[in-house]
Amino acid sequence: MGRHIHVIGIGAGDPDYLTVQAINALNDTQVFFAMDKGETKSDLVVLRRKICERFIQEPGYRFVELPDPERATDTDYRQAVVDWHAARARIWAAAIAAELAPDGVGAFLAWGDPSLYDSTLRILEAVSAEVDISYDVVPGITAVQALTARHRIPLNDVGAPVLITTGRQLRARGFTGSAVVMLDADCSFQRCPPQTRIWWGAYLGTADELLVAGTVGEVGARIAALRAEARARHGWIMDTYLLRVSDGAPD
Known about the structure:
It comes from Mycobacterium gastri. By secondary structure, this protein is of the alpha/beta class. 35% of the residues lie in helices and 24% in strands. Strand 6 (162-166), helix 6 (167-173) and strand 7 (178-182) form a beta-alpha-beta unit. The mean pLDDT is 92.
């Protein structure tokens, strides 16, 4: 059969978000590969282990933690990402070849869904050029779904599109209608007009979950302060938010 890799979407933080398909894939796996992002994010690896302990019926699997290479911050953003992915691919290829039997089954557990602002699939494509592997993808509950569920709101206005973007792109391009913003370390919503609606969430699906909703003028400063305090306390933060304007684009 050859080496096979499951890429398993494990949801936004709540183990109850796992699908039956994901649980079946967990139970089919012998080796789980996890990126070690340092002490400040060690609880992310711990949560992955707890998910396995909860849902895997038979012991015998093992975790292999891989060092996460540094991403350059003093060069072009896109080139830095390309170089970072290449460095990860080299580490993953070596680990799969060394740790997974020629007919073994391994897995990477991806937060949310592997299709949404996650590098796992791009890196595995590069790995497959170095190591003979096949892989499949198990979808998961995204932070976007968790956010709208926790705020009890629809993602879109009636018949209207939704933009999914980053803080960097929001600052550069703005938006009209509705936009989901991810990977925003700079609280870019603060540049939107004060009447812009915002639904924000951090650590979604975990015991540390934070939720705030209102207009940017009403709650923007509060969100920025909450975010800074939470990041300082935990050493990391995963958050996302939905913006909506009724009439035209932000200035």
